[in-house]
Design goal:
mainly alpha, Arc Repressor Mutant, subunit A, 2 domains, 3-stranded antiparallel beta sheet, 8 helices, 55% helix, elongated
Length: 205
Amino acid sequence: MSLDHAILGFLNYGPLTGYELKKIFDNSVQHFWPADQSQIYRTLGRLVTNHLAEVERVRQESRPDRKVYTITDAGRQEFRRWMTTTLPIQDNRSAELIQVFFAAQLSDQQVLDLFRPHAEGLHRLLEVYAHVPEAVDQNVLPEQAEDFCPTQRDQFFWMLTLECGITMARAELEWIESVIQRIENHQIPAQQDNVNGKVSGENYA
């Protein structure tokens, strides 16, 4: 997925400024597709250059002019094309699992020191996920984004992404906590010398 298509998707709801787009990202998709303000503005510029969006400068008396972006017909066609395209499976690389694969070369305590912070991070992530429905219900957006009107059908599919995130985080947390428990209960083979097979660490009979 590209940031271009995410922004086109939001513009398909109605005209928005870059600031409003950032607010919407922060209240919706940031947990699986984050974007900072500079990335959003660069992408908006590219969409305008490629005639997928248009920009209008709206003057304000006591504030700087607002740049309001609107999706074009070509932008809608490109968004529809992307939405109806089966995307390739993403490259499933994981540096964390590389550490797990070679973890036999560490002491039990060193392995625990790898797993415990990750478990704590997943607990914090699940706490954040718990507040997402509240943010969606409140639809916390700047007052100017009055044309941004997602429907109940929109919110249903938004909640599916949250459901996926919670399911995956819970499954990973369950696995990590089971590993921690097995290590703490000495239910794994003792650390051994990789050269001659001699026990070099704790030996739990």
